[in-house]
Amino acid sequence: MWSCNRRIAAIVLVLVPALLALATSSGCGFQLRGTRHLAFSTIALKIPPNTPFGTELARSIRVGTNTRVVPAGPKAEAVFDLLGDTKDKEVLTMDAQGNAIQYTLSDTLRFRLVDPKGHELIEPTTIRVQRVMSSSDTQTISKETEDALLYRDMQSDLVQQVLDRIAAVKPNANPH
Q: Going by C-beta distance under 8 Å and a sequence separation of 6 or more, which residues neighbour residue 94?
C-alpha cells in the first residue's frame, strides 16, 4: 500500500510542476516554432536555380509550412521574387602593420511577394544581416571555413526572416 502511495506522490510531484509551467507559458504568447500557416496554399519561387538560399527557402517552406512550392504559373497563388542577394566583406579593424584583424560579413537580400496578377503582397523589401569575424594571417584556412559557416548562418537567418514576413501576409491583403 505504501509503495502505491509513493508512486502516486512521485507522479504528482512531477506532473503538477510540468502542468503549471505549461499553463503559465501558454498565456504569455510563448510558442515553439512549428508549422507556419501562410495565407496561400501554393507559392512559386523566382530564384536562380540551385542557389543555397533558394534551396533552403524551398526546403523550409515544404517542411515548415502548410504551403506547397510549385513552378511559376497559374497554380501559384503567390510568387516570391528575389530581386537581389549581395554578400559583402568589409575590413572593420586593422593592426599597426596594416593587416586586417576584424571583418564585417554581411548578406543583403532584396525581394517582393506578388499575387498571380502581379499585385504586390509584400512590396520590395531589403533585409540585411551581418556578423563580425576576427582573424589572423596564421589561420587562413580556418578563416575561410569560418567565413563559410558565418555566411551559412546568415543565410538561415535570412530564410527565417523572409518566412516571418511571408507569414504576416493576410489573405486578400491587396484586393486590387
A: 100, 101
